[in-house]
Amino acid sequence: MTEPRTDFAGRVALVTGSSRGIGLAIAAELLDRGAAVAITSRKAEPLNEAAKELVEAHAGGAGDRVLAVAGNAGADEDRAEVVRQTMDRFGRLDVLVNNTGINPTFGFLPDADLNAARKIFDTNVVGALGFVQLAWKAWQAEHGGSIVNIASVAGLRSSGVLGIYGASKAALIRLTEELAWQLGPKVRVNAVAPAVVKTKFAEALYTGREDEASAAYPAKRLGTPEDVARLVAFLASDAADWITGETVRVDGGLLATGSLG
């Protein structure tokens, strides 16, 4: 057996979009490392199930270190309520992970639904900035901290039918750089750019053709939520103290091949 990890002991993390998939894996990783974790997503029922799963996976009594607050990341009042409850419960907010991302449309850009495009940018970019502003004002401006934004390899290279989603993630990558410059040295801000990770969100990209999809990767497999979670925890930790403004790919080597598969 390995010794329990405690590098986040006494710290509080807020992970958005965390009822399942990558967000839930990040919350679990930070909880494993000693953090108290606030999780949030739009629908209360699956979020509460995720909170129950986190507590049950930590038999040592993690119930007092898990908070679930339902809310729409694209709504100003919901973001404010999530941060307010986090501060009320834990009294601090050291780590913010902006994981929420939506993609309700894909296809030929000249035919794109502009209302859907607005919704994508409002949630994936403006919503992330909104959480940053709240975390900064509630705790980090005075006490410091770290922020990790979940971007995508689609934000680093043209992605065809995922064009609007990719453009939103490119904006998030640029936002990460601007925030790192403006919030330093108090707060470090980095981004993670995954390729296809085996989650419900990405099912359409690999279901029924996983062997074919993974063949394009030098690692010869698709990603898992845990692959992303471990990198996020590193970037949020003191071990990454001199890393800020960076976007780190976690893509099984996909972009090294010169394409998105």
Automatic annotation (TrEMBL):
<dbReference type="InterPro" id="IPR036291">
    <property type="entry name" value="NAD(P)-bd_dom_sf"/>
</dbReference>
<dbReference type="InterPro" id="IPR002347">
    <property type="entry name" value="SDR_fam"/>
</dbReference>
<protein>
    <submittedName>
        <fullName>3-oxoacyl-ACP reductase</fullName>
    </submittedName>
</protein>
<dbReference type="Pfam" id="PF13561">
    <property type="entry name" value="adh_short_C2"/>
</dbReference>
<keyword id="KW-0560">Oxidoreductase</keyword>
<dbReference type="GO" id="GO:0016491">
    <property type="term" value="F:oxidoreductase activity"/>
</dbReference>
<dbReference type="InterPro" id="IPR020904">
    <property type="entry name" value="Sc_DH/Rdtase_CS"/>
</dbReference>
<comment type="similarity">
    <text>Belongs to the short-chain dehydrogenases/reductases (SDR) family.</text>
</comment>
